[in-house]
Amino acid sequence: MDAATFRALGHELVDQLATLMADVPSGPVARDESATPIRAALDLTRALPDAGTDPAALLRKTATELFAHSLFNQHPRFFGYITAPPAPIGVLGDLLASALNPNVSSWRLAPAATEIELQTVRWIAEFIGFPTSAGGLLVSGGNMANFVCFFAARAAKAPWKIRETGMAGGNGKRLIVYGSTEMHTWIQKAADLSGLGTASIRWVETDAELRMDLAALTRQVDADRAAGYIPFLVVGTAGSVSTGAIDALDEIGAFCKAQNLWFHVDGAYGGFAAATAEAPAELRALASADSVAVDPHKWLYAPLEAGCALVRDADALRDAFAYHPPYYHFGEQVENFVDFGFQNSRGFRALKVWLALSHAGAAAYRQMIADDIGLARRLADVVRRTQDLELFTQSLSITTFRFVPVDLRAAAEEPANVKYLNDLNAKVLDHLQRHGEAFVSNAVVDGRYVLRACVVNFHTDAEDIDALPNIVVRAGRDLHAARG
User: Fold this and answer.
1) Statement to judge: residues 261 and 355 lie in one domain
2) Are strands 291-294 and 307-311 parallel, antiparallel or unpaired?
């Protein structure tokens, strides 16, 4: 493809995308369709073609069909998951990054990209109040950011050369990791793939606010040490996926310091809210952690993929992953990101985040995050005032509630009705997700199946929030009436 053709196709595609993106709010959030029409629309059952296709027609049709058969997290009434709409400058940033196509593994292969990523990491740390001297890198998302920090903790706290001898070098000693029962399941993969095994995880009970119980943590650590195990890592949750619950990070951090345990904060969802005055004060205690995971593709609205691992002691990353000494060039120490994480071949993820932070600035991001939190609180207020709805939790930008028909409200906690309401709300969820008027997900709180609305969306406004309860009630009443 020559430059003139690329220019013409690029202009046409950007024009088409601008129109398609602008039309999203006026359409459904999702469509109720099976795989068959999607396969037919894009001819996805054909064999590999031997002859090529006109690129203009190919791009035009592909863009059209993708927008015709997708779930739109950029829709203002998408409340389903912690998946944000893409900042337009981030979309353009991905185009620019792929045009250059650097391998951001070593400084020599990607000098400008490496320096931009280093600054992006510093900016992210500064934004959430973490030391800017920390080490870090951009990864695919929250799982990988947490994995990087987990392996840094393992290398730092194992009392033997675990990178050389593996778990066998501990002569039967078991490393133990702790987190609340609300902790994300990434920890199971990390324990599994690191060689610890999932039996090394201690799921600590929570209090009435779904926060890790510090007294229970203390008892468990004492019991494990008495049994000859080696506690090494405590994971604090800064915004659980289900309800947005935030552990008492200040208390956990002090406990870890006294016990010589690595304190990691999973802030993949809530970490960026630490920059706002609207967030709970305990969230800002993530600044005392040994490591933090955050996701720019959540509350920085970067296009997928973009996670970030931050480690207070930058050398701990090198100690966990590097196999050669620091790299010097032109008399300066420069960084090779291959020494900081799992990947060798690495894309230029940082550019879209760097551009967005440069474009909007920290103050605008603080305001957008605060707006999302305010909208979720508004939803909780509307739910409280809606006759057929029952509010369960509200934290950060997540509100959970359920539909309870008026005729069952007085007897909602009877065992038969608990089951019926769980089933009914599951049907309400299925109806909403299929019909596309609004999109929510679910959580289970104290054995109750509830609807979960999460606002991480700069397109959402008060009108969208106020509409959601009525949509839920209408669906719930229809389904309840159909019971006969």
Assistant:
1) yes
2) antiparallel
DSSP letter assigned to residue 212: B
Distance CA 343, CA 339 (A): 9
What is the Cα gyration radius of the chain? 24
Query: How is residue 120 written in tokens?
Result: 């992006």
Q: Look up tokens 């609205």; give the residue.
A: 301
Which of 126, 134, 121 has its CA nearest to residue 289? 134
Please indicate, yes or no, if residue 91 is contained in any of the structural domains.
no
Sequence-distant (≥ 6) Cβ neighbours of residue 184 within 8 angstroms:
142, 146, 237, 240, 241, 266, 268
Lay out the sheet containing 389-395: strands in order across: 389-395, 398-403, 448-454, 441-445
pLDDT digits (tens, 9 = 90+) for 369-428: 999 999 999 999 999 999 999 999 999 999 999 999 999 999 999 999 999 999 999 999
Structure tokens at 213: 């119980």
Domain edge (last residue) among 330, 360, 390: 360
Query: Does 50 map to a domain?
Result: yes
Residue 178 confidence (pLDDT) above 80: yes
* pLDDT tens per residue across span 282-332: 999 999 999 999 999 999 999 999 999 999 999 999 999 999 877 777 678
Domain region containing 383: 364-481
Banded model confidence at residue 17, pLDDT cuts 50, 70, 90: very high
What's the pTM value of the predicted model, to 2 decimals? 0.95
Residue 121 lies in a domain: yes
Residues 343 and 368 in one domain: no
Question: Does residue 341 share a domain with residue 369?
Answer: no
Let me know whether 56 and 205 are in one domain.
no
227: how many CB neighbours lie within 10 A of its CB?
A: 9
Residue 453 lies in a domain: yes
Q: Are residues 118 and 261 in the same domain?
A: yes
Question: How many residues appear in the chain?
Answer: 484
Q: Structural domain tally of the chain?
A: 3
CB 241 within 8 A of CB 82: yes
For the domain that residue 385 is a member of, what is the CATH number? 3.90.1150.170
C-alpha to C-alpha distance for 429 and 162, rounded to whole angstroms: 47
Q: Where are the alpha helices (DSSP H) in 260-349?
A: 296-299, 314-321
Whether the pLDDT of residue 333 is over 90: the answer is: no
Q: Which helix (H) or strand (E) holds 163?
A: helix 162-165
Residue 100 token pair? 């250059």
User: What H or E segment, with its residue span, contains residue 137?
Assistant: strand 135-139
Same domain as 310, residue 344: yes
